[in-house]
Amino acid sequence: MGRGKGRMRVLMWGCILAGMPLLGAGMLRLIPQIPVAANRLSDLRMSMESEPDWLYGDPPCLSSGYGWLAEEQTESASAPEPVGETGEREAEPVFAASSSPGEKPYPTVWHPGTGRILRMTYQRSTGGNIINLDKCGQVRNCTGVDNAALLEESRKAPAFTIAADGSPEVLIMHSHTTESFEPYVRDYGDADFNYRTTDPALSVVMVGDQIAAQLQQAGIGVIHDGTIHDYPRYTGSYDRSRVTVQRILKENPTIKVVLDIHRDAIVSNGNLLQPVVDVEGRDTAQVMIISGCDNGSMNMPDYLKNFRLASCLQQQMEADTPGITRPVLFDYRKYNQDLTTGSLLIEVGSHGNTLAQVKRAGSAAGASIARALLELKEE
Question: 285-301 pLDDT, tens per residue?
């Protein structure tokens, strides 16, 4: 997004994104009227294979396609636990810009707005669409697939093995490459920053670097591609990232896993939520895996094979770092997950999280992903 965001117009944009009229007797009550438990953009994600151009200008914080949750569609999941405001925590280091920040550098001057930054933690969920995985971790099933069938599928091994011989086996990339975060712990969000930057040191590319480093350290060959797909135009981000992934897969046929790393965008009554878990005394952003399901129109016949990997990674991450995961979102989404049997989208934190929090989360998630993949090593 090249323009400043101004004030958050939550209700208006919520209606536009959800395809609802701004006025009318049947209008759904949106975020400003509902509790924090329902204020997750991830709860009603829109299919955004072709995003509208205006999305890059306003609203400022949308992630990889989330819509706005209506009150009538709230789930019975446990409410996120508030853990105080950012001012109660120790200050975090300031991250330096890269030597090549691109056309949209990260801000150096801040304009505090009226929206507060509220720390919170997503707790273990309950409800009819929640599946408890055998080892640990959960799945939120937003499809017509039977819970019991999904649980049985989660017990199957992913549809590939890992050689760990130095050849590229994992691709990390970003359909929304410019997604960014808060600079450090503070009480208010910025009035003008739209939480996007072309600077790879201060965007989700930095998070991808953390994941890649852990995989490389474990001896798993990885390619981290930082191609910008969502700037200067947001529209068509997934179309452009698809071309990138197809090219890299063709050049590197040994790749089995494709991880599209994003960040979420979570608001409540105009405030930015900062989902964290305490890891050894430090706030670490919470992580959510998205595994797409084919509704019969997506040409994605192997979606359950992706789900097997999602379940594998979810259980490893939660076992290694209890509380770091939100439930896997299993929903009718594509996000180019038809290209391999190990394609997933991973949300690391939200726009309210700080760079330090998501860096820690990326490192923790990467270490867990490496452990899970090494369990699939060829005999």
Answer: 999 999 999 999 999 99
